[in-house]
Amino acid sequence: MQLLKVGAAVLNQTPLAWESNKAHILAAIEAARRERVSVLCLPELCISGYGCEDAFLSPAVQRTAWEMLEAIVPSTAGIVVSLGLPVPHNSALYNTAALVADGKILGFTAKRFLAGDGIHYEPRWFKPWPIGRRADLAIGKRSYPLGDIYFDVGGIKIGFEICEDAWVANRPGGELALRGVDVILNPSASHFAFGKAEVRHRFVLEGSRAFGVSYVYANLLGNEAGRIVYDGGAHIASLGQLVALGPRFSFADFRLTTALVDVDATRLSRIRSGSYLPELLPETDLCIRGEFDYPTQEPEAVAARPAAWETGQYAKEEEFTRAIALGLFDYMRKSRSRGFVVSISGGADSAAVCCLIATLVRLGIDELGRDEFLAKISHVPQAAVENRRGLSPFVAGTIASMVAEQKGTVPLSAGGFRTGSESAAELVAELLTCVYQSTRNSSETTRSAARQVAEAIGATFLEFDVDGLVRDYVEMVSRAIGRPLSWTTDDLALQNIQARARAPGVWMLANLNNALLVSTSNRSEAAVGYATMDGDTSGGISPIAGIDKAFLRRWLRWFEERGPEGIGPLPALGAVNRQAPTAELRPAEAAQTDEADLMPYELLDAIERAAIRDKLGPLEVFKRIRAEFPQYAIEQLHVWVDRFFRLWCRNQWKRERYAPSFHVDDENLDPKTWCRFPILSGGFDYELTQLQKYVQGL
Question: Residue 422 burial (CB < 10 Å; 0-12/13-18/19+)?
Answer without folding.
Answer: middle
